[in-house]
Design a protein that fits this description.
Chain lengths: 194, 216
């Protein structure tokens, strides 16, 4: 899929996700709110960022060497959005909901612009921070005897916790598989050159 | 590289600012925590909603709370509840026993208990009466009431920050807590159910302060 098609798909997905009924359906349960809505919005924005014109990408890249500032944007946005109060506030106040959705779009776009420039070491550093954070949050949600969000049931919270921990494992496995594949490819190329 | 460093520092500062606003300077992490902090800083006035209950002529909630200059520990319940309200009920019983055991004390005489039902559909007056009887609530010390009208009930819940969600099996989950109202009928503190001793002590302290005020 070329960049333009990706951007189109991303935009289409964002429009679809913004439809109030779909938004409400996702926010009806705590685990869908965090583990369906968050990744879908981020993913759509990731695709959309493919359509950023080359000159703009170059200007941004000057402020984003090795994708460092971009990964900070993504990491910090996810860290802030994982504060339990944000979920409640987003349901109560439309302006917080809007800010949350814009933040998710920013996180997705920043990730797209920074992931490749970051290279393996910085990617590892990024995931090495994000995944344990997600794991700890997941563990807290599972183990807390109290409801952390007034708007959601306790069972829902435990389910979210379990899924967060599962997501950590899945992301880690995918990334390691990709690395293994990447390195194998590189070595094959080197061997064939000799 | 300098630009990247500047951008990164800016991003961190903005993120820090946002997190600090959301968590009220990193004091709380949940909406419930924010509500309790807010109430402790700024007492909440009550809307004049009409309430009814056994052994009670119809009156408004603020009127009931400011009766006899008493401090009130209140909690929201529904009588069919098999989970958290059961422990709430027994906590209220313990508090009633503690209050009755030293009635000679002017302070204790000034603390009242109040259970407010948020399930108007099922909790009619006989249901409330049965609930009060089962917990051997003393009518002069502990009232069990419900709000007379649905709209007023919603208003009250919203004003006090009580969120009730049906769990799909005919029951409800709600942010059960002990709400302390001062003698002017304002909500001044919210305590966790586990902190019932603290809630009681706080109410006694408030009542004591009030008694001291009027005697001086």
């Amino acid at each position: 899929m070329n960049r333009q098609m990706q951007a189109g798909a991303g935009l289409g997905l964002l429009v679809l996700l913004a439809i109030p009924d779909i938004r409400h359906a996702m926010e009806e349960s705590m685990w869908r709110h965090m583990l369906v809505q968050f990744p879908l919005w981020t993913g759509a924005a990731f695709l959309l960022a493919g359509g950023i014109p080359a000159y703009l990408r170059k200007t941004i890249a000057r402020w984003n060497m090795y994708g460092i500032s971009g990964l900070f944007v993504t990491g910090i946005i996810f860290a802030v959005l994982m504060i339990p109060r944000v979920l409640d506030q987003a349901l109560l106040h439309p302006e917080i909901e809007l800010a949350k959705l814009i933040a998710l779009v920013l996180a997705g776009m920043a990730l797209r612009l920074s992931w490749r420039p970051a290279g393996l070491i910085l990617q590892f550093f990024f995931l090495g921070n994000m995944l344990p954070m997600m794991g700890v949050v997941g563990w807290l949600y599972t183990e807390s005897p109290q409801r952390l969000c007034n708007a959601y049931l306790l069972d829902d919270q435990i389910q979210l916790g379990n899924w967060l921990i599962a997501a950590v494992a899945i992301i880690a496995v995918i990334w390691l598989t990709w690395i293994a594949w990447f390195i194998t490819c590189q070595e094959t190329r080197q061997i064939s050159r000799h | 590289m300098l630009r990247t460093i500047v951008a990164s520092i800016l991003v961190v500062l903005i993120g820090w600012g946002a997190a600090s606003r959301i968590t009220c300077d990193f004091q709380i992490w949940t909406e419930e925590g924010a509500r309790r902090l807010q109430v402790a800083l700024h007492p909440v006035d009550l809307p004049p909603v009409f309430i009814e209950g056994p052994n009670l002529t119809q009156t408004t909630l603020p009127a009931l709370l400011s009766q006899e200059n008493s401090v009130t520990i209140a909690s929201f319940i529904y009588t069919r509840c098999q989970a958290v309200c059961l422990s709430l009920g027994s906590i209220f019983q313990q508090m009633q026993t503690a209050l009755l055991s030293n009635t000679g004390n002017a302070q204790t005489a000034n603390v009242r208990l109040l259970s407010i039902s948020f399930d108007r559909e099922h909790d009619d007056l006989p249901a409330l009466q049965t609930y009060a009887d089962n917990l051997s609530a003393q009518p002069e010390l502990w009232h069990v009431v419900r709000v007379s009208q649905t709209e007023q009930e919603q208003l009250l819940l919203r004003k006090l920050g009580v969120v009730v969600i049906p769990n799909g099996q005919g029951d409800y989950e709600h942010n059960a807590a002990l709400l302390v109202f001062d003698s002017a009928g304002r909500m001044v503190r919210i305590f966790d159910i586990e902190e019932h001793q603290l809630a009681l002590n706080y109410a006694l302290h408030l009542a004591g302060k009030h008694v001291a005020d009027t005697s001086s």
